[in-house]
Design brief:
about 300 residues, alpha/beta, Rossmann fold, GMP Synthetase, Chain A, domain 3, 2 domains, about 20% strand, disordered C terminus
């Protein structure tokens, strides 16, 4: 009997949803950084073995939005809760904040099984962890509670086994060699944005978007030309992204190239540009242009 189903990962920003999903799938699909709002779209990743197929939906962190982009991100996360067989609610190892309590209140009207996943247990002592578990238990009747470290792969096998038990009998939705619904061009753009998030100061990253305008294999050469533009929403940020004599842009490009070559399985020639699109996060036109489409989010 083959079982398959859909699992969504929800939680506040920067709790480790993308790290966990990448670990289970076994390949880097979702970008990771220590800055909030790293994940902006619902990203689908597929885990397959001989008896099970799990389609994971990694969602943006649920937060109080301050722009149309933020509204899109929260709506994406909330819609995903109604589409699945199981919800993984990821939290950090500390007592529930007001933001966590708001998320839990949204779970109250949902019949889907919810597994509480306390991530980053390598950062807390066991007595404190037990208090945190009791705190969350008092707020909601979770199907099960798991304490894990996605970064160190601690207790993640037990979590995966629990997810499998909740899957209904069903078809293999995707071939075994398919691990995401994201096109290579979209993943490439996100890998570039990840490196920009890593290197740039805190006030710059929220206003960044990346668009890949070309991915083309050169004739008679195992080399792919990749052209991409990093967009920022303030003129003052453009110089920061480029850096003195182009040093920051070169650093972003050099580290992004390594991940992109692993993704594509080929050497690449990466060219990056920087442009300003003022207040694009509140522009319906640019949100659609950068792939944050409200219409595609109304399922």
């Amino acid at each position: 009997m083959f079982r398959s189903g859909f699992v969504t990962l929800i939680g506040r920003p920067n709790v480790g949803k993308s790290t966990l999903m990448n670990l289970i799938v076994g390949q880097k699909i979702a970008i990771i950084s220590n800055k909030p709002q790293t994940t902006r779209n619902k990203i689908m990743s597929i885990y397959s073995d001989n008896e099970y197929q799990i389609i994971f939906l990694d969602t943006p962190g649920i937060h109080k939005p301050t722009s149309k982009l933020g509204e899109y991100m929260v709506k994406t996360a909330e819609n995903a809760m109604n589409e699945v067989d199981c919800i993984l609610y990821l939290v950090e190892p500390r007592r529930a904040s007001n933001g966590d309590k708001k998320i839990i209140s949204r779970l109250s009207g949902i019949n889907t099984p919810v597994l509480l996943v306390i991530n980053k247990i390598d950062t807390v002592e066991k007595p404190a962890l037990l208090e945190i578990i009791d705190d969350y238990r008092s707020l909601y009747e979770f199907s099960e509670i798991f304490a894990i470290s996605a970064l160190r792969a601690e207790n993640t096998d037990e979590l995966l086994a629990a997810i499998k038990k909740l899957l209904p009998e069903g078809p293999k939705y995707f071939p075994e060699d398919v691990i995401t619904d994201q096109p290579e061009r979209q993943i490439t753009a996100e890998l570039i944005r990840e490196k920009a998030l890593y290197y740039l100061r805190d006030e710059v990253p929220h206003g960044l978007a990346v668009e890949v305008s070309q991915m083309k294999t050169r004739e008679n050469k195992a080399l792919i030309d990749v052209d991409a533009t990093i967009y920022c929403d303030k003129e003052t940020h453009k110089g920061i992204i480029i850096g003195k004599n182009g040093s920051m842009l070169k650093k972003i490009g050099a580290t992004a190239r390594q991940d992109i070559e692993r993704l594509l399985g080929s050497p690449i020639f990466l060219q990056l540009w920087v442009k300003v699109k003022k207040d694009w996060r509140n522009s319906d036109f640019y949100l659609r242009n950068f792939g944050y489409d409200q219409k595609s989010n109304q399922s």
